[in-house]
Write a structure and sequence with these properties.
By secondary structure, this protein is α/β, with parallel strands linked by helices. It folds into two domains: 192 residues, Vaccinia Virus protein VP39 (Rossmann fold); 77 residues, DNA polymerase, domain 1. The chain has a seven-stranded mixed sheet with strand order 3-2-1-4-5-7-6, with helices on both faces. Helix 2 crosses helix 3 and helix 7 runs antiparallel to helix 8. It is globular, with a radius of gyration of 20 Å. The mean pLDDT is 93.
C-alpha cells in the first residue's frame, strides 16, 4: 500500500502533469531520481499495475523516513549520478521512463540547520548528502577569489559577482564564515535596495550548486539517459533556474548539453530524444496560489527515438 507524508515534507510540483506525461506503459519500470518526500513516486505507483516497478533515488538521509511501503518500490540511497549502475545491479535496464524534479525540497529549505535558506539562523552547510566533505563553509573559507567570482557569476548570475568574491575574501581574513548571519552581514551592503531577498537567494543558490556539484551531476545523468531509457520511453525534467533548464533543453534538442547539433552523412540531426512538448509546461495559476515555490518551475518532456 502506498503511504507517504509528501505534503509535510515537500509539495510535489506539477504532479498530475508530470505523471500523466511520464507513464506510457502502466506495466513498465520507472525511475524517480529525486525522491524527496515521495509525492511524485506515490502518484506514479498509483497509476501502475501490480506487476510494475518503481526505483527511487535520493542521497539525503532525511528522505529515508518517506520510503513507501509497496512491494513494487525500490529505494536507492544514492546520488542519481549513479543511476545506470544501480539499475543494472537491480537488473532493471532499460526502463520505460525517468522523472527528475531538480528543486531543493521544502524540507531542506525549512530545516534551519541544513543552511539552505537565508531566512534562518544556522550553520553554513548546504549539503544534500550529509556525508559529503564539501560544505558551504569550506567553499567560502578556502576557495580562491577567482573561483568564488566564477561561482557567483555562473551559478548565481550576479552582476556584481567580482565585488561579492572580493568581500568574502576580505571578511574571512579576520573571521572565518561559519553561520548564515556571517555571510549575510558581510554582503548586506552589496545587495541592491529593495531587492535584498532576490540577491541573497541568488548568492545562496550559487553556493548550493557548487557544494552539491549540481551542474556536473545533472550532466552525468543526461549523458546516461540514452542507455537507460527504452525506445519510446520518456524522460520528464522539472527545473527551477535557467542553468538547469538550458542544459536539459540543449540535451533534448541536440543530444548534448552544449547544444551543438551533430549530423550524419545525409545531414540528419543525430539526437536520441524528441520533444513531447515544444515549449516548457508551467504550473497553473491554481498551483501557483497553493504552492508559491512552484513559481519558477519549468517542465520539459521528451521521448527516446
Amino acid at each position: 500500500m502506498v503511504q507517504n507524508n509528501a505534503n509535510t515534507y515537500h509539495i510535489p510540483v506539477l504532479l498530475n502533469e508530470a505523471v500523466a506525461l511520464l507513464i506510457t506503459n502502466n506495466q513498465g519500470v520507472y525511475v524517480d531520481v529525486t525522491f524527496g518526500g515521495g509525492g511524485h513516486s506515490a502518484e506514479i505507483l498509483n497509476q501502475l499495475s501490480p506487476d510494475a516497478k518503481l526505483v527511487a533515488f535520493d542521497q539525503d538521509p532525511d528522505a529515508l523516513a518517506n520510503v513507501l511501503d509497496d512491494k513494487r518500490f525500490v529505494f536507492v540511497p544514492q546520488n542519481f549520478a549513479y543511476v545506470k549502475n544501480n539499475l543494472r545491479l537491480h537488473r532493471l535496464l532499460p526502463v520505460d521512463g525517468l522523472l527528475a524534479d531538480l528543486g531543493v525540497s521544502s524540507h531542506q529549505f525549512d530545516t534551519a540547520e541544513r543552511g539552505f535558506s537565508f531566512r534562518f539562523e544556522g550553520d553554513l552547510d548546504m549539503r544534500m548528502d550529509r556525508n559529503a566533505t564539501l560544505d558551504a563553509k569550506k567553499v567560502l573559507n578556502e576557495y580562491e577569489e577567482s573561483q568564488l567570482f566564477e561561482m557567483f557569476k555562473l551559478y548565481g548570475e550576479l552582476k556584481n559577482a567580482r565585488a561579492i568574491a572580493s568581500r568574502v575574501v576580505y571578511k574571512r581574513a579576520t573571521q572565518p564564515f561559519r553561520q548564515i548571519e556571517d555571510l549575510k552581514s558581510a554582503l548586506y551592503n552589496l545587495a541592491p535596495k529593495l531587492k535584498q531577498n532576490q540577491f541573497f537567494a541568488q548568492v545562496f543558490q550559487a553556493i548550493r550548486i557548487e557544494v552539491n556539484q549540481e551542474m556536473e551531476v545533472l550532466k552525468m545523468l543526461l549523458e546516461q539517459l540514452e542507455d537507460i531509457i527504452k525506445t519510446n520511453g520518456r524522460i520528464v525534467f522539472i527545473t527551477y533556474h535557467s542553468l538547469e533548464d538550458r542544459m536539459v533543453k540543449n540535451f533534448i534538442k541536440t543530444g548534448n548539453v552544449a547544444g551543438e547539433l551533430q549530423k550524419d552523412f545525409y545531414g540528419n540531426v543525430l539526437r536520441p530524444f524528441k520533444e513531447v512538448n515544444r515549449k516548457p509546461i508551467l504550473p497553473s495559476d491554481e498551483e501557483l496560489v497553493l504552492n508559491t515555490r512552484s513559481r519558477s518551475a519549468k517542465m520539459r518532456v521528451a521521448e527516446e527515438i
